Amino acid sequence: MGFNCGIVGLPNVGKSTLFNALTATAAAQAANYPFCTIEPNVGRVSVPDERLDKLAAIANSAKIVPTQLEFVDIAGLVRGAAKGEGLGNKFLAHIREVDAIIHVLRCFEGGDVTHVESTIDPVRDAETVETELMLADLESLEKRLIGAQKKAKGGDAESKELIAVMEPAVAALQRGESARTVLPTLSPEKQKIFKQLQLITAKPVLYVANVAESDAATGNALSEKLQAKAKAEGAECVVIAAAIEAEVAVLPSEEDKKEYLEALGLSEPGLNRVIRAGYKLLDLLTFFTAGPKESKAWTVRRGATAPEAAGVIHTDFERGFIKAETIDYASYVALGGEAGAREAGKLRMEGKDYIVKDGDIFHFRFNV
Q1: Residues of the chain with pLDDT under 70
Q2: Alpha-carbon torsion 326, 331, 333, 339, what sign?
């Protein structure tokens, strides 16, 4: 069960530089962790989480296995993509497959690289891409709406339900608003149907402001403009310098990386912030398993039950789920591990209806 973020952006904004930094990081991690399959346009990277190191130290684990997030590099977008210009159709097909969108925007002047629009304006660029995506959504929805209306006339109940969510989405897109603005106005039942439409502009978005090296620690006027746009939409914006990320990714040791970043006034790679923001964007939680063999982080969607969490480890665990021995992270650390938590009465037995909380440490009891 993978969760993924698609990286999009106009040509020459630093999208490939950022993606290459991610894949270099993934390649460096592949030496330590299994399952780092890297396809040409997919990089799977570990989610930075200092809680895992603490758990491993307490549990005396021989191995640490972080959870991972997948990033997909989506071919560059140009104006007219919705009409099939450039790699239009392929681009739209790829972007429909991802769970969330990371939109890289150029917030640096000058350089050898010329911008496709010949002036630098991240807000305009964001709107260019957004417009293409809205046009693509509108075109596919209008066609589907006509089909659903025909079926509904014949008394098809499912089509009537679809029309009830399609019509407000079409109206929003025609007004030049993305489909995600419709979601909060729908009832929980309608939200489920709406999600089945798989609209591109309904996917959550994270903006990445790509600045020059000298602005990496502080940002600049262009990135501030983009942050204001993100804030108005209730979206997040991360400021990074892709050029720095590419250099850090290939440094041999953690020490070297730390020194290099500190010299630039940075406390950690910007990639870490992008990965964490992507994780948050997908509304994911981390739970842990910890023991002498390994301490491992696992991912579930917010709202998952204990048996669903067990199923992430192995389908048999979900099928034969009996109960989950559960310790919250703070108690595990404060009481020095499982034995201390058990003695203090902080180890709980949770059943099938338990909703997973971020940081839970589980030991699943199951019967197969």
Answers
A1: 1-2, 26-40, 76-90, 111-118
A2: negative
